[in-house]
Amino acid sequence: MPTTHAILAPSASKRWMTCPPSARLEAQVPSKETAYTKEGTIAHSMAETLLRICLEQKGQLVEDFVDKFQIAYNATQGTGKMAPLYQELATHVHQAQDEQLDPWEMMATVLNYYCRPVFDDYLAAIGEDPDAILLVEQQLKLSEYIPEGFGSSDAVIIWGSTLAVYDLKYGKGVKVSAKNNTQMKCYALGAILGPGELYDLAQIRMTIIQPRLQWISTDESTYWDILKWATEELRPAAVLAYQGGGDFVPGEHCRFCNVAPRCKALAAKASQLNASRGDTALMTNEEIAEALINAQQLKSWLTGLEAYALEKALEGQTFPGFKVVEGRSVRQISDQAAAMQTLEDAGFDEASYCKPKELKTISDLEKLLKKKGFQELLGQYVIKPQGKPALVEESDPRPAMNSASSAAEEFKDIQ
Ligand code: SF4
Fold first, then answer.
1. Burial of 51 by CB count in 10 Å (0-12 exposed, 13-18 middle, 19+ buried)?
2. Distance (Å) from CA 58 to ligand 1 centroid
3. Fewest beta carbons within 10 Å, which of 51, 247, 281, 366?
4. Is 180 within 8 Å of 42 (Cβ atoms)?
5. 38 in Cβ contact with 171 (< 8 Å)
6. How many domains does the chain have?
7. Can you tell me the distance from the alpha carbon of 192 to that of 195, in angstroms, rounded to the nearest whole number?
8. Rounded to whole angstroms, how far apart are CA atoms 51 and 137?
9. In this structure, are 146 and 60 located in the same domain?
10. Distance of CA 259 to the CA centre of its chain
11. Rounded distance, CA 43 to CA 311, Å?
């Protein structure tokens, strides 16, 4: 899996197309590897190897593949007694273990919710066109439309006159829609210009798969619409961003911008409450709604700003009027077993000094029993209490609670 990044990466295309100067600014800040990016890299490598194994054996992997592989791995401790692709998979298991991740849970997740659907699509494509191809971790050249642009698509399937691109997102933060998604359009463009060049293409399909959210989102387009978009929108925005031109435009896309904590345009937008507008001393509901939207940005910008300033202060930078101190510390028992023994020896009843036994979380129990076992053994005890009311933006996919009076009534019960 490639690790170098383009200045104008497809994954950040929404950002640099909307806020062109962000690309050059971000390029000045070294991107940091976090626990999440390491986890994502290992999950992608695992998914890539699993898809290659499917291709090698020309079919889906057996249902209990992960259990069987775990037994084989434990028997050899991943020490070179397996076929090359299986050895590669063992390396990813090692990498996950080194990062204190559960490799078997990761493998089962990417296999069942990413590799299987992609490979099923490939098998269906072969059913329609025996010459269908599946390309795994396909390198894409985008420099014709994006200066120095390149990227890679996790999977590309081409059959008949259709080209499908797939993007695996291992994070479990927010569901990402493929609808009109510029990153996916870039991947489709790269695949059209690369392996797709040899085909007479008409339909384009773009799919995002988020295994841990069990979320699959697909958008469809045509060959000509992708090229038209690339010529009329992508290329002009990319050239402007490459030159460092254009205006700073803060918005939703600032969320993963590396320079967000220090960005003046975002700071100005986030702290703008429009409080002086209108002729009333108190804010109207419309003004409150506007301020609530800004409040989301303000909160996330402030969190990023505080984290950035602390990190830099720990590196030795100074911020006038601030100093680094030790945070509040909570007393702890250094040896729980010894403390319990001492209390027992002193004649105390266990119930008086131990907390009552508590079941692990539902996710932990699902890990222990696997989804099917969990359902069989504990399904009858699972309830889902009504959630607390929350005021969210109209665009939120959850349905609105019925009416003001019933929402207040239901909330009373929850309280
Ligand atoms: S934080 Fe937002 S406004 Fe500022 S450079 Fe990044 S994308 Fe542009």
1. buried
2. 46
3. 281
4. no
5. no
6. 2
7. 7
8. 10
9. yes
10. 19
11. 28
The pTM (predicted TM-score) of the whole model is: 0.79
The answer to whether residue 306 sits within a structural domain is yes
Tell me, yes or no, whether 1 lies in a domain.
Answer: no
Q: Kindly state whether residues 36 and 182 are assigned to the same domain.
A: yes
Q: Is the residue at 4 inside a domain? A: no
Does ligand 1 come within 6 angstroms of the Cβ of 19? Answer: yes
Output the residue whose Cα is nearest ligand 1's atom 1: 260
Mark whether 123 and 187 lie in a shared domain.
yes
Q: Are residues 145 and 237 in the same domain?
A: yes
Q: pLDDT for 213-263, tens place per residue?
A: 999 999 999 999 999 999 999 999 999 999 999 999 998 899 889 999 899
Separation CA 15–CA 249 (nearest Å): 9
Do 165 and 185 touch, CB atoms closer than 8 A? no
Give the C-alpha separation, 233 to 145, whole Å: 10
What is the Cα 127 distance to its own chain's centre?
A: 32
Residue 12 CB less than 6 A away from ligand 1: no
Could you tell me if 145 and 234 are in contact, meaning their C-beta atoms sit under 8 angstroms apart? yes
337 burial (CB, 10 Å; 0-12 / 13-18 / 19+) is exposed
Range(s) of the domain holding residue 293: 271-314
Residues 105 and 40 in one domain: yes
Ligand 1 binding pocket mutation candidate from 28, 248, 305 (most atoms within 8 A of CB): 248
Other C-beta atoms within 10 Å of 221: how many? 17
Q: Which two tokens stand for residue 229?
A: 């978009």
- In 3D space, the residue among 62, 52, 47 whose CA is nearest the CA of residue 106 turns out to be 47
How far is the centre of ligand 1, averaged over its atoms, from the C-alpha of 266 (Å)?
A: 6
Residue with tokens 């309830």: 383
- Say how far apart CA 210 and CA 171 lie, in whole Å: 7
pLDDT in tens, 378-406: 999 999 888 888 888 887 778 888 655 55
Reduced to 3 states (helix: H, G, I; strand: E, B; else coil), residue 137 is strand
Cα(403)–Cα(411) distance, integer angstroms: 12
Task: Extract the tokens encoding 296.
Answer: 């989301």
Q: Which atom of ligand 1 is nearest to the CA of 250?
A: 3
CB atoms within 10 A of CB 257: 21
For residue 193, give the nearest of 156, 239, 220 by alpha carbon. 156
Q: Do 222 and 306 reside in the same domain of the chain?
A: no
Residue 101 tokens, joined? 């991740």
- Please tell me whether residue 139 adopts helix, strand or coil conformation: strand
Measured between alpha carbons, how far is residue 181 from residues 17, 113, 139 in Å? Answer: 12, 21, 19
- Of all protein residues, the one whose alpha carbon is nearest to atom 7 of ligand 1 is 254
Going from the C-alpha of 361 to that of each of 102, 180, 380, the distances in angstroms are 17, 37, 16
